[in-house]
Amino acid sequence: xxxxxxxxxxxxxxxxxxxxxxxxxxxxxxxxxxxxxxxxxxxxxxxxxxxxxxxxxxxxxxxxxxxxxxxxxxxxxxxxxxxxxxxxxxxxxxxxxxxxxxxxxxxxxxxxxxxxxxxxxxxxxxxxxxxxxxxxxxxxxxxxxxxxxxxxxxxxxxxxxxxxxxxxxxxxxxxxxxxxxxxxxxxxxxxxxxxxxxxxxxxxxxxxxxxxxxxxxxxxxxxxxxxxxxxxxxxxxxxxxxxxxxxxxxxxxxxxxxxxxxxxxxxxxxxxxxxxxxxxxxxxxxxxxxxxxxxx
Amino acid sequence: xxxxxxxxxxxxxxxxxxxxxxxxxxxxxxxxxxxxxxxxxxxxxxxxxxxxxxxxxxxxxxxxxxxxxxxxxxxxxxxxxxxxxxxxxxxxxxxxxxxxxxxxxxxxxxxxxxxxxxxxxxxxxxxxxxxxxxxxxxxxxxxxxxxxxxxxxxxxxxxxxxxxxxxxxxxxxxxxxxxxxxxxxxxxxxxxxxxxxxxxxxxxxxxxxxxxxxxxxxxxxxxxxxxxxxxxxxxxxxxxxxxxxxxxxxxxxxxxxxxxxxxxxxxxxxxxxxxxxxxxxxxxxxxxxxxxxxxxxxxx
Amino acid sequence: xxxxxxxxxxxxxxxxxxxxxxxxxxxxxxxxxxxxxxxxxxxxxxxxxxxxxxxxxxxxxxxxxxxxxxxxxxxxxxxxxxxxxxxxxxxxxxxxxxxxxxxxxxxxxxxxxxxxxxxxxxxxxxxxxxxxxxxxxxxxxxxxxxxxxxxxxxxxxxxxxxxxxxxxxxxxxxxxxxxxxxxxxxxxxxxxxxxxxxxxxxxxxxxxxxxxxxxxxxxxxxxxxxxxxxxxxxxxxxxxxxxxxxxxxxxxxxxxxxxxxxxxxxxxxxxxxxxxxxxxxxxxxxxxxxxxxxxxxxxxxxxxxxxxxxxxxxxxxxxxxxxxxxxxxxxxxxxxxxxxxxxxxxxxxxxxxxxxxxxxxxxxxxxxxxxxxxxxxxxxxxxxxxxxxxxx
Lengths: 296, 300, 392
Prior knowledge:
- With 296 residues, chain A is mainly alpha-helical.
- Chain A is built from 13 helices and 2 strands, in the order H-H-H-H-H-E-H-H-H-H-E-H-H-H-H.
- In chain A, helix 2 crosses helix 11 (229-245) and helix 10 (211-225) crosses helix 11.
- With 300 residues, chain B is mainly alpha-helical.
- Chain B has one domain (14-226).
- In chain B, strand 1 and strand 2 (143-146) form a beta hairpin.
- In chain B, helix 11 (246-265) packs across helix 12 (272-286).
């Protein structure tokens, strides 16, 4: 308990936790696209940057309230998702992946060349309006949304697409339509996360949203457990915290991290909690409790 | 108007520049395309194999003082063994898992090699390449050719022809094509699929190794992160040409190289990296399997 | 049933918090910097990664300054202590590292030596009321972030016009080609400073080319330049690209030399560029020039040489040294190590003599430094070509 209190008062831990929450929101969006629907996206950070810049520019120029800006940022990212999604979701697998990667790179180059975004100098002076409580609130809300989506008719259609899109089509699921919708929702989350990021960091630079960041997000989703919300939460938490804990081996940190990526995949190709749902977790607990009771 | 005039005047020279750049993309793109053709994996570590090739060449030239062709041979051998090792350790155990698992594993290998070389070298700053080929410049009408450029074009061309012949007309090439159709059937036909996949990796790595030495020498710079951007762009070239297709990778590479140089020459230098990706998206939307790719057959 | 499940989902993030809590509870205790037995100063920079050289040199200079101060009895009866914050040249980690330094109770943070990361981390220092003294962020928009943010480097807006004047009046340059590294804040900033300066001193820009960081192939840009007449190249990027660009120029038979800012300052320039960069000019706020060095500077150079097997200090180590000394002097003058108090004294610094020369903070807290050293590559070495005094 004392530990929790310390963390909730220590600005360093607050910072790390806030970032974890922000990444979690973006990762949940990617979870819907990649984990649930089975579509590759290697450019999630690009959508995050669209949300970040939109929200930050609204705050700076129109002084509208944060919640509105986050929503508009999310919508802008979602709109970009639809725009990219319609033509490119006809592509499959790696082709889609590389298209999204390319799209994110183009977005980055465009931001670099725009005047209003401050170009390479970056966008500075964004007021600090993100705090841990807000991020926890949004993150919890996102988890709830994601849970509801996954357990709805819509979510089941998406999973059907992941398992076999031809069969899904045969069952009357309009796959392209559903894929685009999943893409739109997923990128909306990325946009909201970007908006929060902008108002936490108070400074945006197109370089913060490069390929590396996109692949980091993909790592969160895949290493945690593809298609599992608890997995995405675990993956994001562990991988965001890991660099902080590994600080003592600073020099070899990235070496360990990258080796772990390979080893993890070899021994648990579906991620830590791949295919694990909250139901399963509960089953483990209840089973243990019943055996405890039996022994008493 | 004056601008346009200058642009047209310099066009032949810019095309030469573009083709040279494109030839290096093509050499690396071939590795991506062959591996993808046979195991449907974007081998993200391929760019790092190319980087290791460049470093091997540099070490051979500066430490062991061998000549350029021996250095290239050494780089090819090192890269081939490295690629076979990577396939054995990081990809083979994952052959029957989801599509994303080997992809993440490939990213891990790529990051691992970058970090490892940076650690060994001490910093990520580039090293220069000694002048192993005398830099003579030939004037041919309105265009200038440097000797290095000629060597790149000749070596790249020869390697590509060699590759094409290997895949098209030899027994092992036939086996590669069979394996890329179906592992099981290839297996039933008495083909050792594992060995064929290793061979494919080795072949792709050989080209990347040669490419690394050529590029290191031409641009006079070798650094631990050199494989990242070049790797991504070469992959684009492979997709542009139609992944899995060997002439496609060559065409895609040259096309991308020329387009990039033209973009810069026309004054879009600030959009250079976007050019490659914009082209890629455009081509994919019009021809979803690339310029020379076969249409994807979806099996029910 | 379903409700319970949902509840469990909502609890998960909180569980994650608890996980971290148990993981990191009980580590180092925090103490407020002003209250403890030492005065803590943070180092922010990359000891590894792309800009490791800048970080390592800055830290070396800082350590020398702390050693000197502590040998002389410390400040206000307390010893000075450096807390190192290495972010591995990684901007996404820099924010966390800065926050960690502040948690550990530093009163001032020296660094980061690059503009990008300084702009990212300065708001954190500002909102926590901790002084930040960047020893290298030369780009625009740094001290505007807040009144706790300072820098002690030679500003391009001071140096570039002075150098342009020299190029126009002494070297008689009339026409130049301007090469900018797009996507590099430093380079774009410097270009925007050079442009009006060139216009002011009557130098015409005959062509503008754009390259990118980590690019190695400049054939297209150089070919485009090959039909133009010009006296020299103004190159606003870093040394790696500068060296390779000049190599390509020589390859295509162009003979002009280049001039640029301290982004070109690095032994890699002539190591990579070889003969192609002979005669190229680079300006800097610090150079080892024993003919002109003051006693303080000479002493610094000697000490650095003794510690580093005879190697000479560069701009970053000297600025790191000065940064610590500036903060220390402000703390002394304020009689307090509380940032709220010594910040004001720091802002009033005037005609302060450091190892990098004379420093005055103007009304906007921007450093006005003199002199500017213009170096030239000669026989694969940087030698001082001229020293330009900046009028106050």
